[in-house]
Amino acid sequence: MTKKIGFIGVGNMGAAIINGLASRDDIQIHGTDRRAAGLAELSKKFGVVQQETALDLTKVCDYIILAVKPQHAEAVVREIAPHLDNNKCLISICAGLNTDSFKEWTDNRCPVVRVMPNTPALVGESVSAICLDDQALTDEMKSFVPEVFEGIGQAHVLSEKQFDAFTGVIGSGPAYVFYFMEAMIESGVALGLTRQQSTEMVKGLFLGSAKLADQSDHTVTALREMVTSPGGTTIRALMHFDRKSVRGDIIDGVFESYLRSIELGK
Predict the structure, then answer these.
(1) Could you say which of 105, 132, 163 is where a domain stops?
(2) pLDDT class for 87, splitting at 50, 70, 90?
(3) Are 20 and 151 in contact (CB under 8 A)?
(4) Rounded distance, CA 118 to CA 132, Å?
């Protein structure tokens, strides 16, 4: 049976999820967005059925993915709430908004799933957290929603109380990686490489290292030790990092992100 999935908002993240679903023939994708040009492009490229309004979309879809800015979420949800019921599933990818808020705004009319993808979703390599805590979810919904987000990378089912930890490590994580990449690129330039050379090499370094970590049977620690020869260049750099408490500072930074996530949730 074909499932109808509707996207309220087809910006970068919405479009990325649509791209991950487009090859499936058991799904019919609907979309609505204030930016008509972007919606028309997705319709032409992926066959997205265009809906005039969020209400129109909600009436015909089984799963409604809310992909709007968090500050607009309440107004949109309250607008569509009268057309929600236990046979429809509302999926929010709005950052910082918990399940209870959506249950309140919908008057508890339908099951709600909270999902937090991270930005590598834009290239099909997301790590997403999925909250299936809502008791109103059917077994079919609990099975299907993770499948949707596996189309753009990894999908991990977590309790909502784990979402702040996920935010600190994974949600904010791409920024940490890019921050370290920037430092590596600047180091290369300082040592005489052109900026283009340094940038290309550092991108290759991160891509290759991540692929090795993913495909190797060794732990990340073991892989690091493989590069760290006794008395060599690598141990000299790592000892400097340890003297400067770089590892501890990274952990502290992750905890700061975690604590800020808790603050925002209140």
Answers:
(1) 163
(2) very high
(3) yes
(4) 18
